[in-house]
């Protein structure tokens, strides 16, 4: 196929093109570049610097219907915190770049900053700078977050080992269910779905759990679930050169999500596999450490991590459902797809 447009490349193709156009020989202070949740940079001190950035675009990541300005401020920072958590690090300093329409209300910016500051204060993050620009038609939010970690505690996507258990730190699909509710796609009363809506609008990444998993050495590989477990487990497998079996019956889903799926005649499992934006952690660990994993995660979050699969030698991901294994498509949201 002749590649002529960005949509022909797709998101992964764009990343690969950029990666191919820059030097593949990294300087010694760059411990990890493209292909993980954060860049990892060596510093003169005893810790490495973690750097991540995310952009939210009106009409792609949010609308007035799905996120209030206050929720947008919270979520814009949360998605970056989630990347730091996935590396086992501690977030420290943020840079905020925001593109605003000329007719945007001052109250929009005030509410946005209220949400941003609420999460920043909760996690000890300092806003140190950024940029403001005029945007002709869409609100654009870019946050760069700096954090740190002891070199031996950083957890990469590439460390999964054959025979490892695959774990998740919390229920999946809630954010997708919340979006479904916010978009008014369910029939009947929407009461009782507040936890789903909150999961979509104000996620709270398990930062303390990520640090503990990294510091203890329990996690061999880790990633945050931003694009859906099917797609994100695929990233871990690709970087680690392994495959996986994911067990449908083990994937944790909330009672509210199951009720919504039943009422809407949808399959909750599809939201859990492909919905994304849960910002829980997916990690792999030795089978010998199962009790330690459950103990550490339960102590820090009040909910023990849930074993959902196994790392295997063969390529690809298989979904085991009612004792039958079938190849699992990555699904999730793909930027630049037609």
Describe what you observe in this structure.
The strands form 2 sheets. A 7-stranded mixed beta sheet has the order 8-10-7-11-9-12-13, sandwiched between helices. A 6-stranded mixed beta sheet has the order 1-2-3-6-4-5, covered by helices on one side. It has 338 residues and is of the alpha+beta class. Helix content is 36%, strand content 24%. α4 (174-182) packs across α5 and α6 (207-216) runs antiparallel to α10 (290-301). The model has no long low-confidence stretch (mean pLDDT 90). The chain folds into 2 domains: 6-152, 60s Ribosomal Protein L30, Chain: A; 155-327, PurM-like C-terminal domain (Phosphoribosyl-aminoimidazole Synthetase, Chain A, domain 2), CATH 3.90.650.10. It has helices at 6-21, 69-86, 106-123, 174-182, 194-201, 207-216, 229-240, 255-264, 268-274, 290-301; strands spanning 30-32, 39-42, 48-57, 90-100, 126-134, 140-149, 165-168, 221-224, 243-247, 281-285, 306-312, 317-321, 324-327.
Describe the structure concisely for a colleague.
By secondary structure, this protein is of the alpha+beta class.
Q: Please state roughly what percent of the residues sit in beta strands, choosing from under 5%, 5-15%, 15-25%, 25-35%, 35-45% or over 45%.
A: 15-25%
> How many E-type strands?
13
What is the CATH C level class of the largest domain, in words?
Alpha Beta
Q: Terminal Cα separation, in Å? A: 15 Å
Helix content: 25-40%
CATH homology group of the largest domain: PurM-like C-terminal domain
Q: Unreliable stretches, pLDDT < 50, 5 or more residues? A: none
Number of helices: 10
Give the overall shape, derived from the CA principal axes: globular
Oligomer: single chain
The CATH architecture of the largest domain comes to: Alpha-Beta Complex
Could you say what the CATH topology of the largest domain is called?
Answer: Phosphoribosyl-aminoimidazole Synthetase, Chain A, domain 2
Spatially, the strands of the biggest sheet line up as 8-10-7-11-9-12-13
Structural class: alpha+beta
Task: Please summarize the sheet with the most strands.
Answer: 7 strands, mixed
Mean pLDDT: 90
């Amino acid at each position: 196929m002749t590649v002529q447009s960005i949509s022909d490349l797709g998101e992964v193709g764009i990343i690969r093109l950029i990666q191919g156009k820059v030097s593949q020989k990294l300087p010694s202070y760059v411990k990890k570049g493209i292909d993980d949740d954060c860049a990892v940079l060596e510093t003169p001190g005893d810790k490495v610097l973690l750097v991540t950035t995310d952009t939210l675009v009106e009409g792609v990541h949010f609308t007035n219907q799905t996120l209030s300005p206050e929720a947008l401020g919270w979520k814009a920072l949360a998605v970056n915190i989630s990347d730091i958590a996935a590396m086992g690090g501690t977030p420290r300093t943020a840079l905020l770049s925001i593109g605003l329409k000329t007719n945007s209300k001052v109250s929009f910016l005030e509410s946005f900053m209220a949400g941003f500051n609420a999460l920043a204060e909760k996690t000890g993050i300092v806003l140190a700078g950024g940029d403001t620009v005029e945007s002709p038609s869409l609100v654009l939010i870019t946050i760069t977050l700096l954090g740190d970690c002891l070199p031996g505690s950083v957890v990469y996507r590439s460390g999964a080992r054959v025979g490892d258990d695959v774990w998740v730190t919390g229920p999946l699909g809630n954010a997708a269910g919340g979006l479904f509710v916010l978009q008014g796609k369910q029939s009947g009363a929407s009461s009782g779905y507040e936890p789903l809506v909150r999961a979509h609008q104000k996620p709270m990444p398990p930062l303390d759990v990520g640090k503990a998993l990294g510091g203890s050495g329990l996690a061999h590989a880790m990633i945050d679930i931003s694009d859906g477990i099917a797609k994100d487990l695929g990233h871990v497998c690709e970087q680690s050169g392994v495959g996986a079996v994911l067990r449908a019956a083990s994937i944790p889903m909330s009672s509210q999500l199951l009720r919504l799926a039943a009422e809407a005649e949808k399959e909750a499992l599809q939201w859990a596999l492909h919905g994304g934006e849960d910002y829980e952690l997916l990690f792999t660990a030795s089978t010998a450490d199962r009790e330690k994993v459950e103990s550490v995660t339960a102590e820090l979050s009040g909910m023990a991590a849930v074993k959902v699969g196994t790392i295997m030698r063969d390529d690809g991901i298989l979904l085991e459902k009612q004792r039958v294994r079938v190849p699992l498509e990555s699904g999730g949201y793909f930027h630049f797809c037609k």
